[in-house]
Amino acid sequence: MTRRQMLRQCSLGFGQLALLGAMAAESSVGVPPVSRAMFRPRAKRVIFLFMHGGPSHVDTFDYKPALIRDSGKPLPFAKPRIQFAQTSNLRRSPWEFRPCGQSGAMVSDLFPLVGACADDLCLLKSVHGTNEAHGGALLKLHTGSDTFVRPSMGSWISYGLGSENRNLPSFITINPTLGHGGVGNWSSAFLPAVHQGTPLGGGVPVEKATIHYLHDPGDNVPLQRAQLDFLAEVNRDHRARSGPDSALEARIESFELAFRMQTEAPEVLNLDGESPATRRLYGLDDPRTASFARQCLMARRFSERGVRFVQATHGYWDQHEDLTRDHGRLASEVDRPIAGLLRDLKSRGLLDETLVLWGGEFGRTPTLQGRDGRDHHPHAFTMWMAGGGVRPGFSYGVTDDYGFYCVDQKVHVHDLHATLLALLGVDHEALTYRHAGRDFRLTDISGRVVTEVFS
Fold first, then answer.
1. Domains defined along the chain, listed by start
2. What pLDDT does residue 22 have?
3. From start to end of 295-450, where are the E strands?
4. What's the pTM?
């Protein structure tokens, strides 16, 4: 029996431990990993920059000279049997690609500042999924399943590694999408509820995003402590009569965490102390970039304080029409903040221990939709990583001449998750949770660690 199983099954659960250890030293709070560390941990935490809607890989990081040459011609091989919608002939990118950095990575003019950071990027050009629709593709990317309710990858990481900071959640999602899977994209599902993502904003302008009820209007900490102690006594009495109750224990821990967050979260959310140079670096001084700049800067601030998994969401990259106009606008909103985040992490010595992941739920077709659009495309798309023990200035995976199918070094979404966990030092096959009579894991029954991208 593992330590975690013992705690879950006996009457002394996590909620009781939270109460007994509420004032304990921070070093005693981290939850030991539930799996053996098959890999040397290369990263301590993750920042996921999620481009909701599906940015086009053939217009950003997957350069295809043949697509330029054959633009306007029919695709010379069969399209998938199941497609989200019909498309016509091949269509070249309206943007030029240029070699960037010493690595010579070909990056489109959509991302000039990110391209300048090319020597820090590890490009995964052969990622593929299984779902052509946004909802299923988002859930597949975030939870590993597009058909069942499963814990999100942030929740699995929180469950496996615990928290580095007892005063902050281990999983925070900034400006999460409320559609296409909604809360399922940051849900803990059947894992203990303490591992669910804490949403910051969503449905409101980012500058107004906050953690609700963070401040005590009465500003009376001793009274709050007394109220929580009384509530804990009532809950202990209830548990004594009803037996072990994981949902009750999760509520107790959430109350305790909320109480502790008051001491640290307000300072993290307040960006006033950042220098003018840092604000310019991220693009807080430009109305076009200010929104995502705020997300990236908050992600750095939460990450440097020990939050294991921080997600920042931007969108909507779903251009079935007006690709040239809208992909151009969207890229101009994130290029400077993303480059600023990478440079800031590097200058602070944080990039080596922080894995930055960028991408959407799928790519877009190399074939034309309408007059100026591309359709959903899960069969081949590009994501990139930086820092956290991956090979900088490196490209992995190959698509065909037009970027339609992966042809070599394929990376399924399960492989992406397995690799992500391995970079954190966790064996994806051993990170399991017993539920409904079987052991579940993020990668279900598959997944290959792409060790070739390790530094």
1. 31-215+262-453 (3.40.720)
2. 39
3. 309-315, 354-359, 363-364, 376-377, 381-387, 394-396, 398-399, 406-408, 411-412, 433-435, 438-440
4. 0.90
